[in-house]
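Dear all,

This email documents one entry for the complex benchmark we are building for the journal club exercise. For each entry we list the sequence lines for every component of the assembly. Then comes the predicted three-dimensional structure of the complex as a token string, followed by one or two observations. Please use this as the template for your own entries, and keep the labels exactly as they appear.
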Amino acid sequence: MSLRIVVTVKYVPDATGDRHFADDLTVDRDDVDGLLSELDEYAVEQALQIADDADDAEVTVLTVGPDDAKDALRKALSMGADKAIHVEDEDLHGTDAIGTSLVLAKAIEKAGYDLVISGMASTDGTMGVVPALLAERLGVPQVTLLSEVSVEDGTVKGRRDGDAASEQLEASLPAVVSVTDQSGEARYPSFKGIMAAKKKPVESWDLSDLDIDADEVGLENAYTAVESATERPARTAGTIVKDEGEGGKQLAEFLAGQKFI
Ligand SMILES: Cc1cc2nc3c(=O)[nH]c(=O)nc-3n(C[C@H](O)[C@H](O)[C@H](O)COP(=O)(O)OP(=O)(O)OC[C@H]3O[C@@H](n4cnc5c(N)ncnc54)[C@H](O)[C@@H]3O)c2cc1C
């Protein structure tokens, strides 16, 4: 039986770019370069390693996002994923985490799966809640924030590192897991991988393909709303201490003044 792994990957604005809010207080995704969320590269990497170790496995990458989100899928395909699914619909604009989890869950059920792998959080919304929401909607176990993961005889196993202790966790498949940025370096796409990705299938679905009504998603139906957004004040140069013998004392006074010490 082929092991069906679905990796959820998010297309996010490039953090080095000029990220700003649009008039409707959602993040402006139109005029900003975007890329595959870095934390999801670890999820793709772990899926590929599990597939490498399995007798027969297929890795599907899935994203919910605007047209440019295809770039995130292409990157994951060039890393070695087998196929991709892109859910795109204008009614998805401004969808919150609860709505996103609904769309992802319906797409994962339609695709068929044994294991869902997500990143620990996206690099823009950074809520870290979608994997748990997904497990709830799919009605399967969740094993989150793993720094090590493997699949054996229908069971997913992993290690979660906490501040005080590490936990060894496992769950029977089907299940949802999320992996951290400590789970191992993500591979760089090879030239051969980049070329092969151009031929790999990308399925495009919209809300009607998933039997989801527009009034279940989108900005109007979000459970949270951004009331206002103000520009973060520009960074100041800060206090420069010129050490002419009193540098240490001045530094201590500054730290005390800031109540750091
Ligand atoms: C600055 C900002 C603030 C926001 N604040 C809120 C808020 O307070 N409440 C709210 O409900 N929504 C909020 N959103 C919207 C929310 O980001 C999106 O709904 C998003 O799709 C899910 O939340 P997240 O990015 O925080 O996901 P997380 O829970 O951080 O994501 C965890 C993992 O889920 C998967 N994933 C997440 N989104 C997608 C996707 N679109 N496609 C495929 N996989 C995905 C990825 O594997 C990711 O690593 C905010 C968005 C931004 C940019």
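Observations: The domain at 3-221 is CATH 3.40.50.620 (Rossmann fold). The two ends are 61 Å apart (CA to CA).
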